[in-house]
## 1
Amino acid sequence: MKTHPRFISFEGIDFSGKTTQLNIVREKLDTIGRPTHLVREPGGTVISEKLRPIILDKAHAEMHATTEILLYSAARSQLVHQEIWPMLERGDYVIADRFYDSTTAYQGAGRQLDIDFVARLNRFATSGLTPGRTIFIDISPEESVRRRKLAGRGRDRLESESIAFYHSIREAYLTLCRDNPDRFVVIPGEDSIEDIAVQVWEQIVSFWSL
C-alpha cells in the first residue's frame, strides 16, 4: 500500500456528522491559505456520480452483495485515478469523505464478504493508495437512528438496513482503529459539533504541521 501524507480520509457510520466536520475543516483551511480538495464517495467524477444513485436507490433492493462491492469499487477506482492521484502528484492536499475503509466495514463486515478478498479488491481499485491519516467519528447505531429521525430525512438503500447491520459496521471500524493505530484517530461523535470540530482541527494541524 502507498500511504500518502497529503491525503486524509474521514469515516463513520451514517449521521456521524463527518460531512459537517469536513466542511468546517475546509473553511478553516481556506482561511489559513491551505486550499484543499474535498472529494466524496461514491462520487467525485462524472462516472462515479452516475454510479452513486444506482448503489443507493432503495428501488434496487435486489442488489447482490458482490454487485454492491464491485459498484463501490468501480466508483472509487475512477475517483482515485481521475482525480485523487493527479491532485496528489501536483502536490495538492486531499480530504475524502469516505474511502476504502468504508468498504471493509460495510461490505466486508456488514455484508459478511470474505475479508481477504475485500482487502485485495481495495488495493486493486485504488492502486494501493492509502490515506496518511483517517479520522473516525464514532457514534452508536442508536444515535444514528435518532439523528436521522430528527432530520426527517428518508433512508437510502444502505440506511434502510437493520440496527444489527450497523452494529457490525461500527465494530469493524473500531477493529480497524485498533489494528492501525498509526493511521486512525477516533473522535467521539456524540459531543457538540463545536467540541468535535476542535478535536478534528487539532488532528489536521498536527498531521499537516500547520
## 2
Amino acid sequence: MTDLVVNRGVDIVNMSIGGLPQQNDGDNVRARLYTRLIDQYGVQLVISAGNEGPGINTIGDPGLADKVLSVGAAVSKATWAANYGSAVDKKYAMFPSPRAARARTAAFTPTITAPARP
C-alpha cells in the first residue's frame, strides 16, 4: 500500500484489513503511517470497519486511524432473508458493523456505510 502511494502516485487506496489490538485507540505505528501518507501525499485511504460489532469500541485497527475513511456495511432486506434467514423492516439494515470513537478526535466511526456484497 505504501508503495502504491509513494512510488506509483495513486489517489485512493481501498483496504479490507484489520483486527482488534490490545489497545484499540487508533494510535499505533500503522495509524501514524496512514496519517502521514494522507498528509504528505494527499491520498484518501478507505478502510473497512470490520465485522466485530456492534459493541462499543469494536472497529479494528487500522479503521480508527485519524484521517482514514472507515466504511461499515449495510445489507439489503432480500439478502438478510436469503442468506441469514432474518426479517428486517428497512430496505437496508446495518450488518453488525463495529462502532467506536476515535481517540484523538472523538469522531465516531464508521465514517460512512455502504451496501455489502450479497
## 3
Amino acid sequence: MVKLLLNFLAFLVENCQLLTSVAVMAGIFILLAKSIKKHPGIYYFIFAIPAILFILRAITGDALIGSSRTSVIGLVMREYVHAAGFSFPLLVIVMYMGALPAHNPYVKRLMMIRKELSVISGFPILIHSWVRIGSISGSIAFFAGTSADMAQHGHTGFGAVLSNSAYLLGILMVILFTVLWVTSFDAIHRRLGAVKWKKIQRWSYVLYAMLFLHSILIHVGGLLGGGGHGRGGGNMALAHTVAITSVCLVFISYLILRLRKKKKG
C-alpha cells in the first residue's frame, strides 16, 4: 500500500507538475501568509533574484550564472522558464481565490496576500514570456513563409498551426499581464484610485481565458505532432495528455466555482 502511494506521488510529481505545484505552493503561502503581508518587500526581492540572474546571464552571455544543475538557484531559474513550475501555478492560486468561499480560513489567509501574490507571480511569468517571445520569430515565419520555412521553424500540419497560434497569442497575453502586474504595485494602485484600478483588474478574466486557450493550443498541438513545448524525454504523448487533462480540470472547476459563487452572491 505504501509503495503504491509512493509510486502514485512519483507519477504526480513527474507528470502532473501543474497540479502538484499548485497544491505545494498554496500550502506554503498559507503558512507564510502573515509573514508575506508584514514583509512583502523581502519576498519580492527573493522571487526577483532568479529573474535578475536570468536577465544578467542573457545580457552578459555568462553561461556560468545560475547554471549549476545541483544548486537551488539554478533549479529555480530553470523552473522560471517552464510555466508549470512557478508562473502558471501562481496565476491559478490567484485566480481561484476569487472563486472559493471567502469564509474558509485557508482562503482568508490567501486573500490576505492576494495583491502580494499577484506581484510575486510577475517575476517568473515575465522570464517565461521573455524566453517564449525570443523564439516567436519561428511562429511568424511559420505562417508567413513557404512550405520549406514551415518545416524548418515548426512541424507541418494542423498540430503546428495550433502550437504556433498559441505562441502568437502569448504576445497579447504578455501585454495584458504586464498592465495588470504593474498596477498591482501599491504606488500605482494609489495613483489610479480604487474605481479605475478595479476596472483595469477586471481584465484579469480575459487573461484567464487566454491562458486556458494558450495552454490547450500548445498541448493539443504537441499531441498532434506540431511541436509545442516540453522538456524532452519520456512519453511526450502522455505528458501532453496529462497536461490537457490538468488544464481542463483547473479551468472547468474554476468556472463552476465562480458561477456558483456569483449565483449565491
